Amino acid sequence: MDGVLVDSPHERAWREALAGFADPAGFTTAFYQANVAGKRRLEGARTALERLGGPQAAARSTEYANKKQALIDRLIEEGSFEVFPDALRFSAALKAAGLRLALASSSKNAAAMLSRLELPDGRTLLQLFDADLSGREVPKGKPDPALFLLAAEALETPPAQCVVVEDAPAGIRAACAGGMTSLGIARLGDEALLREAGADLVVTSLDHVEIAALAMGTLRAQAAKEPVANA
């Protein structure tokens, strides 16, 4: 969800909550994508504190995670997020093509945000999805594929016939580990990170994915349009 469907305040909340735990100067967008995005809350908190040299990282990770959660709850209540227009078009087109959709975010805040985003026909964005596994407790978080495998089960679809859309390397690795096709959406100039993680296709906009091909079981980008010659 975060970074794929919604431009959410998660990165901001993680960074602002760092005060008193570690120096937030090192918490860049690149750091967030590589170390926190896509991971479960406590794992992301511990990893961030360890990598930033925060004292007693393991012991203080729960406190840091709780502070971050309180902040993001407030930001969500204030409506400090918005849907990516290409993601809205992509989701609606997939649904119209007869594909079944599942949310499988590590975040427990998916429903809170997507239920606030309305489609032109009056439905909420959350209602486009046939299943919501977001925040589900699993033995291991991404890059372990457990959450994605639960999503495939909820959709009654074999993993090999599933496509995972992710903006985080941890999520791409989870898709690969689960035997699923993976589509990386690089909104932050991080195409290389997603390719290195094993993404089958990386795009900078979901508008670049060929919906008709995907509905037939093939993931590919739309062919580049030829420039129109001057008359």
UniProtKB/TrEMBL annotation:
Pfam families in the record: Hydrolase (PF00702)
Q: Which UniProt keywords apply?
A: Carbohydrate metabolism, Magnesium, Metal-binding
Top-level taxon of the source organism: Bacteria
Required cofactors, per record?
Mg(2+)
Q: State the SUPFAM superfamilies in the record.
A: HAD-like
- InterPro entries linked: Beta-PGM-like, HAD-like_sf, HAD-SF_hydro_IA, HAD_sf, PGP-like_dom2
Q: Which GO terms describe its molecular function?
A: catalytic activity; metal ion binding
* Transmembrane parts of this sequence: none
| Keyword check for Magnesium | yes
Annotated Gene3D superfamilies: HAD superfamily/HAD-like, Putative phosphatase, domain 2
NCBIfam families in the cross-refs: HAD-SF-IA-v3
Hey, which family's this protein in? Belongs to the HAD-like hydrolase superfamily. CbbY/CbbZ/Gph/YieH family.
**Record protein name field:** Beta-phosphoglucomutase
Organism expressing this protein natively: Methylobacterium oxalidis
